[in-house]
Design a protein that fits this description.
Helices cover 70% and strands 4% of the residues. It is mainly α.
Length: 299
């Protein structure tokens, strides 16, 4: 196939995609005209008329729909950021343990990864919410003194109060994604030549220090691209928070659509919001990946 032929194939594919998009937009416009709704975002300035259980900024039911959606977006951003941090710690620990010389650590890591990956995330979220947290007594328990207090009303960590809904989503997303990150880390560790492992062991360096100083820095270029995909999956999986009553962006958008009847505009905003969120995560991971690669080239 010549270069000219490949160019024409690309042009025809682009024309087909544009034609399909034009047909879909035309059908959408015609249906909106028939229903007498039209495409409008004026409803964003109307009072929300509903309460949001959790909000990082002041919010009242009389505030605008746009402000309510922003509260949902911030709630999603909060649970996603916290889950990414916790899932990364769990995944790195489990992935490193799976390659440990200690058979107990290796077996526990394998059990964790094998079990969690086979259970749907929705079932895990329901378990953490209805069984693990709502099953707690109403009187606060303090297993670590003032550091952690748990009850079926709220979770307090170092004086920071977390709702049961937020805690269930945080633990569920972190445990679920951590199992997949563990496999990513394990694959990255396997990409490091065995001679590097034998080298630090022959020098009398402990497993933990050897992993931190010798193996992990060499495994990072193989780990980071796949890790970015897991973070993006976590962000998309966060929409299941609605199952346990957490007021994330999807839950607030669903309420707004029910209140206004503006399903198309509501879903367009929802798609744009998650696109922006995923682009933010992907951009941060690209910066980190370039920094790691540049550091490796300098060394």
């Amino acid at each position: 196939m010549t270069r000219r032929q490949r160019w024409w194939i690309q042009v025809l594919l682009l024309a087909a995609v544009l034609a399909l998009a034009g047909i879909l937009i035309n059908n959408l416009t015609v249906n909106l005209i028939r229903t007498g709704l039209g495409l409008s975002f004026r409803w964003l300035s109307r009072p929300a008329g509903f309460a949001i259980s959790e909000h990082l900024l002041p919010f009242q039911p009389g505030d605008s729909m746009a402000w309510a959606l922003l509260m949902g977006w911030l709630n999603s951003l909060r649970v996603i950021a916290c889950s990414i941090a916790l899932a990364t710690v769990l995944g790195v620990v489990a992935g490193a343990a799976s390659r440990s010389n200690n058979p107990l650590f290796s077996a526990l890591a394998g059990l964790y990864v094998g079990l969690i990956r086979q259970i749907p995330l929705l079932l895990q979220l329901l378990f953490w919410y209805f069984v693990a947290f709502l099953g707690l007594p109403s009187e606060p328990l303090a297993p670590l003194g003032a550091l952690i207090r748990v009850s079926n009303q709220a979770i307090s960590v170092m004086g920071l109060n977390l709702s049961v809904e937020f805690a269930a989503v945080l633990v569920g997303l972190s445990v679920f994604t951590g199992a997949f990150i563990a496999e990513v880390v394990r694959g990255g560790l396997d990409a490091v030549p065995r001679g590097q492992w034998e080298a630090f062991r022959s020098l009398g360096i402990g497993e933990g220090l050897g992993l931190k100083r010798v193996v992990l820095p060499q495994a990072l270029p193989a780990i980071l691209p796949a890790l970015s995909s897991q973070y993006l999956n976590l962000a998309k999986n966060s929409t299941l928070s609605i199952a346990v009553g957490y007021a994330d962006l999807y839950a607030v958008s669903d309420t707004a659509i029910t209140q206004t009847g503006r399903a198309i505009e509501g879903f367009l905003l929802l798609l744009f919001s998650f696109l922006l969120l995923n682009l933010l995560i992907n951009g941060c991971m690209q910066i980190l990946n370039h920094a790691v690669l540049n550091k490796g080239q300098r060394t």
